[in-house]
Specification:
Layout lengths: L12 H11 L8 H11 L1 H11 L2 E4 L3 H11 L2 H4 L4 E6 L24 H8 L17 H10 L6 E6 L30 H10 L8 E6 L10 H4 L4 E6 L8 H7 L5 E6 L5 H7 L9 E5 L5 H10 L5 E5 L5 H8 L6 E5 L5 E4 L1
Parallel strand pairs: 1-2, 2-3, 3-4, 4-5, 5-6, 6-7, 7-8, 8-9
Antiparallel strand pairs: 9-10
Length: 350
């Protein structure tokens, strides 16, 4: 007897979502974005799950095409509802940057003649820009602020330096244009994440609960406010050298419901941070990772002893005594620990 297959249209939505997720995976022979685009246009039940994947994470910077895309997505409710993560690409200037004019050209954000190209990128009809007034040019800070208010489900902010591909000559005359404000007309603005996204994190109606902040150049000059950290439950800060903010630990402690704390100093020498962290207590902390921040033996033991909710501790690239490792592992609290072992291999105990 032949097996009769159920029509795909009668499958549960959960199965349809899994099909789209599987078909939308990138492979060595196929990039996921164009394939998801085609799935989205193929059949109506595929549309929503494909959009959930395509628009889950949105990149944002002061590059023209990032601002264009961000603005159009934020002004399109059926796309904005899927955005869960904003990835800020910091426009840093390396000492080796070429001094081409295109790298620092000033242009108004979202010029009208760019609309067609952006529509081609996001596969939308002309009606999504009906509210865009002819000749209007919203300043970048206002555009970002207004756009973030239209994204009701954003939960994560990520920030890291723009990849080196930005140093390559542009493929089109408008592709690598920076939007530079008047006070910074002579250089590419830095720390845009602090300047543009910090206010959104500190807003009373903010839905952001997770921060991933990567920095590879100089220490931060303009620290966050404590209000920006208040609603966070997960913080992952990875700097070349953790900045010596006077209020950095106070900002971390302002996240009263913090569950996950990851701190990494690539260059090391972060003892000034740990000396204050080990004196603090978070009531909900469950996972901690310290890497290269110069923990002290007694300070780490006291920190673990103080946090009864802790169930996973990772300490790597830190000078930690064998006795301290053993004391923590013998606390009989079921804490999973990961330390640098004496033989160079990772030591794990549940």
């Amino acid at each position: 007897m032949a097996v009769q297959l159920s029509p795909i249209g009668k499958m549960p939505l959960e199965i349809i979502h899994l099909i789209v997720f599987f078909l939308g995976q990138s492979t060595p022979d196929r990039k996921s974005t164009p394939y998801l685009k085609n799935l989205r246009l193929t059949w109506k039940p595929f549309k929503k799950p494909a959009e959930e994947i395509l628009f889950h994470s949105v990149h944002l910077s002061l590059l023209m095409f990032h601002l264009e895309a961000f603005w159009i997505i934020s002004k399109t409710p059926h796309l904005a509802i899927h955005v869960r993560e904003i990835v800020w690409l910091e426009n840093r200037r390396y000492q080796s940057d070429p001094v081409e004019e295109w790298l620092k050209t000033r242009q108004p954000p979202i010029p009208k003649n760019q609309i067609t190209r952006v529509l081609d990128l996001f596969w939308e009809d002309d009606d999504i820009i009906d509210d865009y007034e002819e000749g209007s040019a919203i300043p970048a800070p206002d555009l970002i602020t207004l756009g973030l208010k239209q994204l009701p489900r954003v939960a994560t902010f990520v920030s890291y330096d723009m990849a080196d591909w930005r140093l390559e000559p542009p493929k089109a005359s408008d592709e690598y244009i920076f939007v530079v404000e008047a006070p910074y007309a002579t250089e590419i603005p830095s720390e845009g994440f602090v300047r543009y996204l910090q206010p959104a994190m500190g807003h009373p109606e903010s839905t952001v609960t997770s921060l991933v902040w990567k920095e590879t150049l100089k220490p931060l000059e303009h620290p966050f406010s404590q209000a920006a950290f208040a609603g966070l439950t997960s913080i992952d800060i990875r700097f070349y050298e953790l900045p010596q903010w006077k209020n950095m630990v106070d900002c971390l402690h302002a996240a009263s419901n913090l569950e996950k704390l990851f701190l990494t100093s690539v260059h090391g020498h972060g003892r000034h941070i740990f000396q204050r962290i080990c004196l603090k207590r978070w009531n909900c902390l469950t996972v901690v990772r310290f890497e290269g921040i110069g923990v002290s033996d007694d300070g780490l033991f006291d920190f673990v002893e103080r946090h009864y909710t802790l169930n996973h501790l990772v300490v790597v690239r830190c000078s930690l005594g064998v006795k301290t490792k053993r004391r923590i592992q013998e606390m009989q609290r079921g804490i999973k620990t990961e330390f640098d072992a004496d033989d160079g291999e990772n030591q794990v105990q549940s």
